[in-house]
Structures are given as structure tokens and as C-alpha cells.
Amino acid sequence: MPKKYLFFVSLPYSYSILRPLQEEIWKNGDEVAWFIEEPCDVLLTKQEKQLSTIQQVIDYNPIAVFAPGNHVYDFFPGVKVQVFHGYAMKKRIERIDDHFTIRGWFDIYCTQGPSSTAYFQKLSQEKGFFKIYETGWCKVDPFFKVAPGAPGNPRPLVLYSPTFTKDISSADKLYDTLRGLMATKPWDWLITFHPKLDDPALIAEYRSLAEEFPHVNFQRFNDGLETLRKIDVMLCDSSSIIIEAMLLDKPVVTYRNTHPGKHLIDVNDKDAIGEALERALQRPQELMDEIHQYTLHHEAHRDGQNSRRVLQAVDDFIENYQGKLKPKPLNLVRKLKIRWKVKYLRFNFL
User: Fold this and answer.
1) For 22-62, what is each residue's pLDDT tens digit?
2) Of 6, 72, 117, 334, which one has the fewest beta carbons inside 10 Å?
3) 137 within 8 A of 299, measured Cβ to Cβ
4) Domains of the chain
């Protein structure tokens, strides 16, 4: 009998993360369905199965639920699996990366590489109610099936993709600078915003650049590999998408990155961005070497088999650990809030 799995989607970035995992599930002859939490846009294809109600999910009875976001409905059947929406990036120097926040929803955390595995293993030993498997990130399986490097555009294509994090995002600081570069440099531009960067005025301001300049394109959301493979360089601040670009050998210029290093061309002066992008477009060998070493620290697995390892982790957990770990925290307030939000009135928290 085919195994049944569920994808829990709360933000649009989840689609590109989960589809490689879906391909692996289908390849194994198993089934998967999607539950799209409102108000997230439904962006499914005709081949993809959606479950629209809680009762449909309960009747479907998946053996595992995969979530790239920070929460999942505890009352859904199946092992709860965190597959992450990005890499561990210390956006703020003064505290531990929220990538490592344990909220008590998940049974399994599928880590990506040395930058995340060791700390999660420490947390697992301390708390005792979840297991850690280093699988690699399922989103990047397709990254290693395409040729990396410069795409050969007639004109260099620069991607500007700022983070949403308050006080760290460059989006509210760089409009005038970017507009000046767009008016003077022989480059094409693509602007994408994180789904959580939802300031309507700011979005409208950047969208107006695409209306003003024919060589500028504004795309509300980044669609992962399809976006990154066609660019020459990225301009960013402190977002985990930096690592995704670097996995494709794309140099990255950052504005006031919170953890700069030799893998980046980081600037603190807005007027230095143009010169930094010109250097990035030259792809200096010492920079490209640093990029390779840095990405290995975050994504250790380059065989395109991360999704397979995620599914193996689920099988191992069910066989060896399910029902044998400490109980999860009660999380009473959070569980009540979720039930109130979705009008689910059953209260069996065990």
C-alpha cells in the first residue's frame, strides 16, 4: 500500500522547497497532498492534490507532515517534520539565530549541514522530545542538476532580493541608490521581495522602477532555482537566500551584512554598491574559492539526494523512535490559538 504524506504550506516560499520532495515521493510510488493555510496563495498545478479542510486531512491520515515554516497543526495525523525555509543565518549578532528556536511542534528536524546540525543535536539531547537527521535541504536537490556559474546573458543581470527582518532589511534604504544605478549602468535588474516583506508602500515604490526602466523587472516573490540560475550577481543584505545563490556560484554583494566574511563583497556605504557589483561581475577566483568553502559549511550534501534522505529519516523515526521519546511541551496557549483560528474545537492535546 502506498505511503501517504502531507505538505503543510503557510507561505509561498514553501512551494519551491517541497516540490523536490514531492518528486521523490512520486518516484517511490507513494502519495502526497498539500494543505494550504489561509491566506497563503494556492499555486498548485493540475497534477498536485490539495486537501482543503481539516477533516479531509484527518481522513487522508498521512504518516508524516512536512512543514518549511515555524509551525504545524498538532492535531494533524502523522510525524511532524521540519524541513526549514532557509539556512541558519545569524541576522542579529546579539542573539542565537531564530533558525534554532524550538517551539514544540516537531518530531523531526532535517538539518542541512555543519552550520545547523551540531547545535540542533545539542538541543535534542537537552529536550529529548525530537530527533535530528542531517539530510541536506530538499529544496536544493535540483541545484546540483544544473550547470552553475555565469549564465551568459547579453547584459549582466543583477538580482536585488532583500530580507524582511526589521532593522536589517535594506529595502527602505537603497531605493535612491538603486534607481541611480539603473539609470547609469549597462545592467538588467530583477527585484524580488520575501513574502514577509509586505509593506504596500515599499512594494509600490520598487514596482515603479520596473515601470520607469525597461531593463528592470519587479517580481513579487522569488521562485528559487528558476530565478537564481538566470542571474549574474545578487545584491542583498542578510538573508539565507545568499547561500542559495552561492550554491550556483553566483557572487553576492551585501549592504551592511550582520556577519560579513570573505565569501561576500560587503559594503557599509551606499555609494560603494556600484563598484562592488562591478567587482562581483568579474568573478575573481579568490572570491569564488571562498564561496565554495562557505557553502559547504551550510549545505554538506551535493549529490541531489537530500529528499531521499528526508524520507529515510521519517522511516527510521517511525521504526525506532515514535512513541519512545519524551512528550512534547503542552503548548496550551499556542494550541488554543490555532484551534480558535481554524475553528477546530477538539481539545485532545495528548
Assistant:
1) 999 999 999 999 999 999 999 999 999 999 999 999 999 99
2) 334
3) yes
4) 4-137+301-342 (3.40.50), 147-298 (3.40.50.2000)
